[in-house]
Design goal:
Number of domains: 2
Shape: globular
Largest sheet: 9 strands, mixed
CATH topology of the largest domain: D-amino Acid Aminotransferase, Chain A, domain 2
Structural class: alpha+beta
CATH superfamily of the largest domain: D-amino Acid Aminotransferase, subunit A, domain 2
CATH class of the largest domain: Alpha Beta
Distance between the termini: 33 Å
């Protein structure tokens, strides 16, 4: 594998997608590639050659050669580089049974930055805060924006439930619109509204999503515990029926 020096390697001007694979099938592949294409165009390195490399048939052919069953496909693209890699899915049954513990990060999400809304190689804040949270006994940090509103996790979008209604922060708060986030919004009654930390105790349930974990129940966020999973289980069931 040869990696060329370019703006992606030097300055993080590249995009990536992490795609869940179940039974050898890449989930939401077209949606992931559409987001990657959009990000590459915004960063100014979209080409017809990149479009050819990201053709779904070529991605699926590469997966077949890996004898892939369940795991994570990662695609990285910069102006001069295109990389595919494979790893295990880190989320286990016991994670879903106990539910995630979340903590608020002291790092603020910049809702004014265009990079906040793209899945780019500028990902150090997320990884550093994720590692810090793990060391402190949590599974995922949750970022606030500069107005003090909840935005997202390091590698997840966040949802709250009250009286059968799902709530999630709008993208304008400063978050990456996730592929599974979009699926939840299209399939359930979801109200996008600004949510502040002091309001989290007003909800009955909470869950986080991404393309590898799918729908992950939240057991605690900061000092607030969520013991109910009635509606979360409905979302989980519909998602499992879709992917299995």
């Amino acid at each position: 594998m040869t990696v060329k020096m370019d703006d992606g390697l030097a300055f993080g001007l590249g995009v990536f997608e992490t795609i869940g694979v179940e039974g050898g099938r890449p989930l939401f592949l077209k949606e992931h590639l559409k987001r990657m294409h959009s990000g590459a165009k915004t960063l100014g390195f979209w080409t017809e050659e990149l479009e050819k490399k990201t053709a779904p048939a070529r991605i699926e052919e590469w997966l077949e050669k890996q004898n892939a069953d369940r795991g994570a496909l990662k695609i990285i693209a910069t102006r001069e580089n295109f990389l595919l890699s494979w790893r295990d899915n880190p989320y286990k049954r016991e994670d879903y049974e106990r539910g995630f513990v979340l903590k608020f990060s002291q790092v603020r999400r910049n809702e004014t930055s265009p990079l906040t809304y793209l899945k780019t190689l500028n990902y150090a804040d997320n990884i550093m805060e994720k590692r810090r949270a793990l060391k402190e006994g949590a599974d995922e940090p949750v970022f606030l924006n500069f107005r003090g509103e909840i935005t997202e996790g390091a590698v997840s979008n966040i949802f709250f439930v009250r009286d059968g209604q799902i709530y999630t922060p709008p993208c304008s708060c400063g978050l990456l619109p996730g592929i599974i986030r979009d699926w939840v919004i299209k399939n359930f009654p979801v109200r996008e509204q600004m949510i502040r930390p002091e309001e989290t105790a007003d909800f009955d349930e909470a869950f986080v999503t991404n393309s590898l974990m799918g729908i992950m129940p939240v057991g605690r966020l900061g000092e607030t515990e969520y013991r109910k999973r009635i509606f979360v289980q409905k979302v989980q069931k519909k998602y499992r029926n879709l992917i299995l």
